[in-house]
Amino acid sequence: MLMAPVTGSAAATTAARPTTTAKGGPKVARTAHAVTVSVPASTGAPGYTLDVATDELALTTRRAGKTVLATASGDTGALRFTSADGTWQHATGVTGWTWKDGVLTVTADSTLDDATVAARITPGADRYQLDWDVHGGAPKQLGLAYDLSSAGHWYGHGEAETPQGGPGVDQPWPLDAGEVDHETFGPASYNMIDPFWYTSSSTGLRVDTGDVMDVAINKGKDGLGTFTVESSDTYKATVFVESTPLGVYRDYIGIVGKPAKSDATYEQYAKPLWNSWAQFYTRVDQEKLLDYATGLHDNGLDGHTIQLDDKWESNYGNLTWDPKTFPDPKGLSDKIHGMGFDFGIWVTLWINLDSDNHRYAVDHGYLLMDAGDTTKPCEVTWWNGQAGIIDLANPEAKAWYEGNLKNLMDTYDIDGLKFDTRFFDEKCAPREGHRATDYQKLGTQLADEFDLQGAGIRVHWNRTAHEAGFVTRQVDKGTGWDSLRASATQNLAISTIGYPFVESDMIGGSGGQPAPSKDVLVRWAQSASLMPLMYASTSPVGTFDTTTGQKVDYDQETVDLYRQAIKTHEKLAPYIWDQVQGTLKTGDPIMRPLFFDFPKDEASYTVTDEWMLGPAVLAAPKLSSGATRSVHLPPGTWYDVNQGTVIRGPKNLKGYAAPLGVTPAFVNLKAKGAAKAVKALKRDDAPAASVLISPDAPSTDSGTPFQLTTEVTNWGARTLRNVKAALDLPVGWSAEATTGPTAAKSLRNGATLTTTWTVTPADGARWGSHDLTGNAAYHAYDGSQKVSDTVQARVRAAPGSVREPYLTADTTSGGAQYAQSGDQFAIWAGGQDLSGWKDEKGLVYLDDTAGEKATVQVQLVSQNSASPVGKAGIVVANDLTAPEKGGYAVLVMTQSYGLEFMTDSDGDGRLDTWAGGGSTYHPAYLRLTRNGATYTAYASRDGETWSQVGAAQVPSAAGTGDAGMVASAANVNYPGENIEAVFSGFAVTS
After folding, report:
1. Which ranges carry the Glycosyl hydrolase family 31 C-terminal domain (predicted)?
2. Element holding 690 (H helix, E strand)
3. How far apart are alpha carbons 928 and 954 in whole angstroms?
C-alpha cells in the first residue's frame, strides 16, 4: 500500500500524531517540542526512540525510556559547521519535516544568515543513518557534537593523540577519563585509527568519510565529544543502539568487515618476534646483531625471528646494504638461520631525496605528486629526513618496488619484512582515478604478498585492512610505567575498532628514552605473555641506553623471569590459536575489555589494567611498581592460577600479592577453553586439584532439602590417587551423596570427580547465610593434599507474624509482611521512598521503650531490593505510628549506596537532615544512641569496631519513645517491587 508522506512544520499541532509505513515498523509522532521516531524491539534488537527537538535542532536517543545518547546543546550546537570565515555556526529551529519511505527529513535554520541545514534520518532495527548538509553560507567543515555524559563512558577511536603524550605514553580508558585532541584524524594517518566510537550505554557512532577529521573528546575537560569532518560534503554517520557494547561492535564489524584470515602463523603467535630497534636504534651493525641473537639463543630466550630494523641500508629507499656496517649480509643471514631463527628486515616506502633511488623514481614517474602542484613530486618529512613516497596506484611503480624487495630477499635469504611507513600523505595528490583512502587498500595488498613475521602492518580505515587479518603493532612507546599502562589500554582500543590480532609495542618500549628498568622490562614481558602476540626487542641479557650510549646489564633474575613469560605464552598458544580461529568466524576481538563479556558488571567499565583474553582468561598483570595490586573479578567462577583456588565473582581482591615473579591471571571455569587455559597458566607450585561447589548461592527453607554438586578436577600433569570428596556442614545439617561416587582410586589429568549431594538444613535453622564447604583429599606425587571450596547457602525467611511485645506498622500502599523466629525478624515491604519527600515503610517495633538516654542496636543480616536505594535499618520516634509527633530518626543501609542517617530537625514528621555514604556491606551492625535531643548513629562490620555515621539534634524528641526495625523498597523508579530485609539481635537499652 502506498502512503502519502507525512509532513509538518514548527507550527504543527502539539497533539501527538503517530504514523508508520509498515505494521510493526518505525513510527513518527509530533509533539510540542519534538518529532519522535519510535523503533520497536525486535529479534536481536532492543528498540529505541529518537527525539528530534524542534525549538533548536538536537537529537536524543532513548532505550526503554532512558537517555543513552544526546547531542550537545546551547552555543555548541548539535549539527555544527564552520562558515567561510572559520567561525562556528550550528543548526537552530526546525522549519519543517517530512516522513516518507522510511526516511525522516528535517530542515532547520542556522546561526548563520542565509544558511540552512537539511538532515535525513533513516531508522533501522538497531541503528539509524544520519546524513545532513548545509545549504548556503559556504561551509568549510561539518561536525557532530555530543554530551559525553549522556552515554556514560566512551571507547573506540584507536591510538589517541592527547595533551598528556598520547599515543606514545598515554591512552585514556575510557576516553572520557582523559582528554583526546586529535586534529589530523584521517585515513592516511600513521596512527591505527577508525572513525568509530562506542559507549557504556551500548550506543555507537560511525562517521563514514574518507576525509581528515578533527576529533576532540573531553578536550579541556569540557564534557563534549566533537567529531568534525574537514569537508563541506554531506556528513554521513551511523548511530548504533544495542543492548550491549559487544552488540555495537558486532554491528560495526558487519559494515567494515572482519578478518578473512590471520596473517600470522601459529608459531608467530606462540613465540616472540625479536626486533633490533629498541636494542640498538640506528646504532646497529652486523657484529652487534649477531651478538644480540647469540645472547638470546644461549640464554634460552626463545623466538621465531630475528628482525633487523632501521639503518641497514646505504640510504633510505635504496634497498641496498651499507657495506661499512653490514659487510657480509648473506653470512649474517646464514648464522641467524643456524641458531634456529628466521631472519627479517625493516623496509619503508619513503625514498629520501638524497638517495640513489629517488632520482630514478622521479625520472620514471614512480612517486606521488604534490597536492598543490601536480607537476612535481610530493616531498614529505618523516623521522629520517625528507622523502618522496612510492605511488602504489601506479602499476609500474608498484612492480619496480616489489621487484626490488623480492630480489633483495632472494639474494640474502630474507624470510620476511617489517613495513614501517605511510602509504599516503595529505600533502600528496592521489593518482588520477583514485582517492586518498585507496592507498590504505593498496598498501594492504602490497604487504599481503610478504611474510610480515608477526610485526604486522599499520593499515586501517577500510574494509581491505579489516579483512586482511594483519597483526597490529602499536605506535612506539616510552620505557616507563606510563607507557606500559598505555600499551594495555591501547590494545583494547585498537582491538575494539576491528583489528583483533594485537600486540603491544616492543616489550620495554622503543621511544628513544633511557633503557627500561628491570621491573618495567619484566612486567612488560609478563603483560605481553597474556596478549595475542609477543613483540620483543630489549634483551634481558643486556641492552644499550640510547640516551648515553652506555651498556646496561640486567641480572640473572631478569633473564629467568623474562624466559618464564615466554614459556607461559608458548604454553598458552593452543588456547590463543583457538581464539584466532573463533575470531575468523565472528570478528570478535581476542583481547577485549571485561565488559564485552560481562556487560552487566558496572565496575568493569572503568577497569584500566585488566582484560579478557578470549572468554576464559582474565589477565590482571601488575603494570606499576610495588608487589601488590587490586583485582576486580566480574560475576563467574574463577580459578586463580597462582594460588590454585576457586573464587566467585563479582569480587574485588584488595592487596593481591604480585611480587615480581607473579603474574595475576584467572580462568573462568564455566567458559569455553577453560581447561586449556588452566593447563597453560597454572603455576607448578599451585595445588594439583581444585574442588568446586555449585550452585554458587543455593537457597532453601528451614528443614527443606536441596541439592549441591561438588566437582574435584585434576589440573596437574600427573594422575592423582585416592581422591575423596566430602562436605563440611553447620551443626544439625546433614548430607547424602545421591549421584556419582564420593571417591576415586585415580584421577588423571583433566578428569573430574563429580558428586551430587542432597543437603538438609536443621529444623529451625537460622535465616540468612550458612557456610557449606566442599573438601577434596588426594595423594599427589609430593604427598597428601587437601583443597576446599565454600559457598553460602541462604535459609529463607517465610512471611508469618511477630510475637508480643513486638508490634508492626505499614505506611506503604499496603501489603507489608513480617516474620519472627527467635531473635530474628524479617520485613517484606513496598514503598516509594523513605526520605523527606515520601515516608513509606514497613515496621517491626517496640512501643515506649527508648528513654531519654537509650541505645538501639541490630544486626542487618541481609536485604534484597530491585531498587539500588532500597533501605533497611533501625528507627526511633516519639510515636512511630505518627512521626509528626517528633523525635523521628532512622539509620539504614541502602541496597547499593551505603549508609543513610536521617533525622527530622523541626518536628514536622519529615526527614530533613542526612549523613552517610560509603559502600554497602552485610551483615551490617547498626546502632543509634539518644542523649536527650542528641541522636548519634554508628555502624560496624563486625559488631566490635564502630564508626560514627553522623550526629544530629532532634529538639522534638521527648520522653520515652518507640524503637524498631524498618524497611522500604524505595521503588519510585521500580513500581511494584518490594524489599526483603532480615534482622537479628534487635536490642534497646535505656
Report:
1. 587-667
2. strand 689-694
3. 13
Q: How many CB atoms are closer than 10 A to CB 940?
A: 17
Torsion of CA 574, 578, 579, 585, to 10 degrees: 160
Helix axes 556-586, 518-528, angle to 10 degrees: 30
Residue 188 to residues 227, 244, 248, 368, 397, Cα–Cα distance (Å) = 17, 31, 25, 13, 19
Please spell the DSSP secondary structure of 759-800, one letter per residue: EEPPTTPPSEEEEEEEEEEEEETTEEEEEEEEEEEEEEP---
Residue 803: how many other CB atoms lie within 10 Å: 8
Q: Residue 636 has which C-alpha cell?
A: 563467574
Amino acid letter, residue 655: G
Q: Which domains does the chain have, with CATH numbers?
A: 27-256 (2.60.40), 266-581 (3.20.20.80), 588-681 (2.60.40.1180), 689-795 (2.60.40.10), 807-989 (2.60.120.200)
* pLDDT tens for each residue of 786-800: 999 999 999 999 999
pLDDT digits (tens, 9 = 90+) for 517-533: 999 999 999 999 999 99
- The residues facing 669 across adjacent strands are none
* Residue 780, strand partner residues: 783
Three cell numbers, residue 376: 612535481
Contact 326, 312 (CB under 8 A): yes
Once rounded to an integer, what is the mean pLDDT over residues 812-838? Answer: 95
> Which residue's C-alpha cell is 610530493?
378
| End-to-end Cα separation, the chain, in angstroms | 80
For the stretch 528-576, pLDDT in tens is: 999 999 999 999 999 999 999 899 999 999 999 999 999 999 999 999 9
Q: How far apart are CA 939 and CA 943, in angstroms?
A: 8
All three cell numbers of 271, joined, read 613465540
User: Residue 678 to residues 383, 567, 658, 665, 895: CA-CA distances in angstroms?
Assistant: 44, 14, 19, 10, 36
- Residue 292: phi and psi, rounded to 5, are -60, -50
Q: For residues 692 and 669, is the Cβ–Cβ distance under 8 A? A: yes
Cβ distance 552 to 540 under 8 Å? no
- Complete edge-to-edge strand list for the sheet that includes strand 305-308: 416-419, 342-347, 305-308, 273-275, 535-536
Q: Quick check: 433 and 412 in contact, CB under 8 A?
A: no
The angle subtended at Cα 55 by Cα 49 and Cα 56, nearest 5°, is 85
pLDDT for 93-145, tens place per residue?
999 999 999 999 999 999 999 999 999 999 999 999 999 999 999 999 999 99
3-state DSSP call for residue 686? coil
SS3 646: strand
Question: pTM of this prediction?
Answer: 0.86
The dihedral built from the CA positions of residue 350, 354, 360 and 366, taken in this order, carries a sign that is positive
Find the Cα–Cα–Cα–Cα dihedral 799, 805, 811, 813, rounded to 10°: 30
**Average of per-residue pLDDT values in the chain:** 95
Query: Three-state DSSP class for 705?
Result: coil
Task: Tell me if 502 sits within 8 A of 531, measured CB to CB.
Answer: yes
Neighbouring CB atoms inside 10 A of 671's CB total 18
**Which residue, chain included where needed, has cell 524491539?**
41
In sequence order, the β-bridge partners of residue 20 are 27
Q: Are 360 and 439 in contact (CB under 8 A)?
A: no
Say which amino acid occupies 313: E
User: 20: pLDDT confidence band, cut at 50, 70 and 90?
Assistant: very low
Residue 589 exposed, middle or buried by CB count within 10 Å (0-12, 13-18, 19+)? buried
Residue 8 confidence (pLDDT):
58
Q: Helix/strand/coil (H, E, C) string of 66-78?
A: EEEEEECCCCCCC
**Is the sign of the CA dihedral 261, 266, 267, 268 positive or negative?**
positive
Return the ∠ at Cα 753 (arms to 748 and 756), rounded to 5°.
Answer: 175
- Give the position of cell 577508525: 194
